[in-house]
């Protein structure tokens, strides 16, 4: 059974306000690695009192507390991910989509003498769909 946004916030000792639950629930149910603006635009129709500042503040809080991950693959936009298990991100340079890939377990004991604050693994390139489109246009 999937964990609810409310339970995850409580697990991290964060007060589950309506706005926080809505932002986290959006991230937990939309695995598209959205930007803050995307989240705001999606939630505003159902929560008209929501402000962009609240979305940004919520995302900052959730990132600082380790509830979500901020993905900074490019300089344009920070994107956000609620997936808790370590994984690789692939960003397509053509369509800007970000894809998740599972990884084999990382030997964290190799870093036992280091204080790790963040792990981000990513690749950039062209996704299969965009490669196919390019190939069809070149033929």
Number of helices: 5
| CATH homologous superfamily placement of the largest domain | Winged helix-like DNA-binding domain superfamily/Winged helix DNA-binding domain
Kindly, what is the distance between the CA atoms of the first and last residues, rounded to a whole number of angstroms?
47 Å
Mean pLDDT: 91
Cα-atom radius of gyration: 17 Å
Helicity, in percent?
25-40%
Integer count of domains: 2
Strand order of the largest sheet: 4-3-5
- Strand percentage lies at 15-25%
Q: Which residues form runs of ≥5 with pLDDT under 50?
A: none
Q: Note the main sheet.
A: 3 strands, mixed
The CATH class of the largest domain is Mainly Alpha
Structural class, from helix and strand content? Answer: alpha+beta
Please tally the β strands and state the result.
Answer: 5
Bulk shape: globular
Order of helices and strands: HHHHEEEEEH
Structure write-up:
- By secondary structure, this protein is α+β, with helices and mostly antiparallel strands.
- It has 2 domains: 1-81, Winged helix-like DNA-binding domain superfamily/Winged helix DNA-binding domain (Arc Repressor Mutant, subunit A, Orthogonal Bundle), CATH 1.10.10; 85-138, Ferric-uptake regulator, C-terminal dimerisarion domain (Dna Ligase, domain 1, 2-Layer Sandwich).
- The protein is built from 5 helices and 5 strands, in the order H-H-H-H-E-E-E-E-E-H.
- It has helices spanning 5-11, 18-29, 36-43, 52-64, 128-138; strands at residues 69-71, 79-81, 87-92, 98-102, 121-125.
- The strands form 2 sheets. A 3-stranded mixed β-sheet has the order 4-3-5, with no helix packed on it.
């Amino acid at each position: 059974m999937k964990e609810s946004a409310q339970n995850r916030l409580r697990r991290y000792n964060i007060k589950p306000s309506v706005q926080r639950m809505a932002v986290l629930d959006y991230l937990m149910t939309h695995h598209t690695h959205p930007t803050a603006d995307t989240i705001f635009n999606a939630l505003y129709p159902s929560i008209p009192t929501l402000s962009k500042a609240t979305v940004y503040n919520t995302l900052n809080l959730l990132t600082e507390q380790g509830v979500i991950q901020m993905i900074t693959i490019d300089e344009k936009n920070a994107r956000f991910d609620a997936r808790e298990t370590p994984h690789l991100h692939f960003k397509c340079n053509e369509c800007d989509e970000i894809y998740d890939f599972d990884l084999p377990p990382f030997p964290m004991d190799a870093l036992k003498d280091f204080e790790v604050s963040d792990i981000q693994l990513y690749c950039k390139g062209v996704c299969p769909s965009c490669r196919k489109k390019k190939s069809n246009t070149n033929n």
